[in-house]
Every structure is written in structure tokens, then in C-alpha cells.
Amino acid sequence: MDLWPVLGPLVVVLALGTAGLAAVGTLFAAMTAQLRARELLFPVLLLPAQVPILLGAVSATQAVLLGQPLGEVAHWLKLLAGADVVYIVIGLLTFEFILEA
Fold first, then answer.
1. Is the pTM of this model over 0.85?
2. Interval 13-53: pLDDT, tens
3. Alpha carbon distance 74, 77 (integer Å)
């Protein structure tokens, strides 16, 4: 099986998924860093926020590995890109406020 045609789309999907997971994880880690029950609260808050990113990344990765073109999974890529933008922008806008609290 030749992996070179799959490598480009796979890199796109992995980059979008990684950026989203890192952004939401960093945002919620900063929010719960000063709390007493952070070990309990962090995963409870994080999982529901990561579900759209995980769903989009897994579905798009499956389609790419099956050889489907990126056009057929554009709705998953749009979901990933939208979630990335939302969490990165929220993180940037609330960074100072979250760290001061």
C-alpha cells in the first residue's frame, strides 16, 4: 500500500486535531490550576469540550486512511477548524483574566 498520497491529507487532519486538543486542554488547565479539587474538576470539564474535536479528528482520519479525498470529509475539517478557532480565540482573549483569578 502506497502511503504517500495519504500523507498530505493526514498531516492536515492531525495538525487541526492537535491544535484543537492543545488549545482546549491548555484553556481548561489554566482555569482549574488554582482550584483545590483540580484533579477531579479538570477531566470533568475537559471531556465534553473535547468531544467535537475528537469526533472530527477520528472521523476525518478514518476517511483519509480509507483513501477518500479531503472533499468528502470537508464537514469534519470545518468542524475541526471551527473548534480550533473558537478555543484559540477564547484562550487568547481570556488569558490574563484566567491567570489572575
1. yes
2. 999 999 999 999 999 999 998 889 888 999 999 999 999 99
3. 5
DSSP for the chain?
Answer: ---HHHHHHHHHHHHHHHHHHHHHHHHHHHHHTT-TTHHHHHHHHHHHHHHHHHHHHHHHHHHHHTT--GGGGHHHHHHHHHHHHHHHHHHHHHHHHHHH-
User: Distance between terminal CA atoms of the chain?
Assistant: 53
Tell me how far apart the alpha carbons of residues 69 and 12 are, in angstroms, rounded to a whole number. 12
Which of 93, 85, 91 shows the shortest CA–CA distance to 26? 91
CB distance 80 to 53 below 8 Å: yes
Cell of 67: 483513501
Number of domains making up the chain: 1
